[in-house]
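Let us work through a complete example step by step.
Step 1: write down the sequence.
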Amino acid sequence: MTLARPPRRIAEVLADAERALAEAGSESPRLDAEVLFRHAAGGRAAGWDEARLIVESRVLADADVLARFEASLARRLAREPLAYVTGEREFWSRSFRVDRRVLVPRPETEDVVAAALRVAAGLAPPLRVIDVGTGSGVIAVTLALELAARGPGVAEILAVDRSEGALAVARENAGRLSTGAPHAPIAWLRGDLTTAIGGGRLAMIVANPPYLAPADLAAAGPELGFEPPEALLAGDSAGLGVLRKLLEDAQRVLRPEGVLVSEIGWGQGAKVASLAARAGFGEVEVARDLAGRERVLIARRSAVSGASSEVQRGEDGWTRSSFEEGARSRARFGSEAPRTPLSRSSSRRC
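Step 2: predict the structure and record it as tokens.
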């Protein structure tokens, strides 16, 4: 026979959870406990913000809320990322839906968006921008919403990923966050980096490619084991395999003075700057985050345009290689168009 547990105050529930999470290795046990409880109680939609949690700390926890909280807590104690447990992650002050089909968005990727917006301010429209390995769509959606402030028709975003599951998550985020908000149009493409794009048309490539080596992943915390490995591992011992491929093709697809903006790993600054210079970029910058760590590669193509490769041009102005297969959805923030064959391979990265 199972005996019913006595009622417990919210403060007691949180204290017990904090201790358990600390023992399990969480780096922020108190914050994790509070986020999980607010989520179990219905979140902000139900009026559960940080202040209410403090005010009602002496109130007895509702039995149904407590059951949901304990189920979520068990997942977090197993070191599943908090964002997967709650199904959401804040990015650029917006709440994005996430699950195990996509990488969990990191705060450092906001540095990539900030750099891209700074670069975009100095580029002449029309701005045709590609988000490579869009994942949950945080970069593509944020740029679409922020660039809309420059006026209608100024920017157009193409979000590319190899994973149809990741594209589904990104499309959901785009449709939900665009409601009632001005935004640049987004086209969705299942493809391999920039290989399906015609030459000399892009104002900017923005990317958060995989940049971990196997040794990096082995040394990381258990949370990374829940995330898609193809979104983390670059395919070589230096963590530069995907970025190298992107740089090699970037000169072909960027218009004169077009710019590549990419997140990079710690300590990769000198290596990626050298790769960009060897790829023919005239101006190369490695920007640091607030902690002084190398975080963003900014590489600008020279003003002299080279010859572009011949590719099959799509009916919407984007282009695709005739030899590639896959599936494409040219949804414009939730309005989905017929699907056409395209590429199957790329990296899944937020």
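Step 3: interpret the result. The chain has two domains: 10-78, 101-329.
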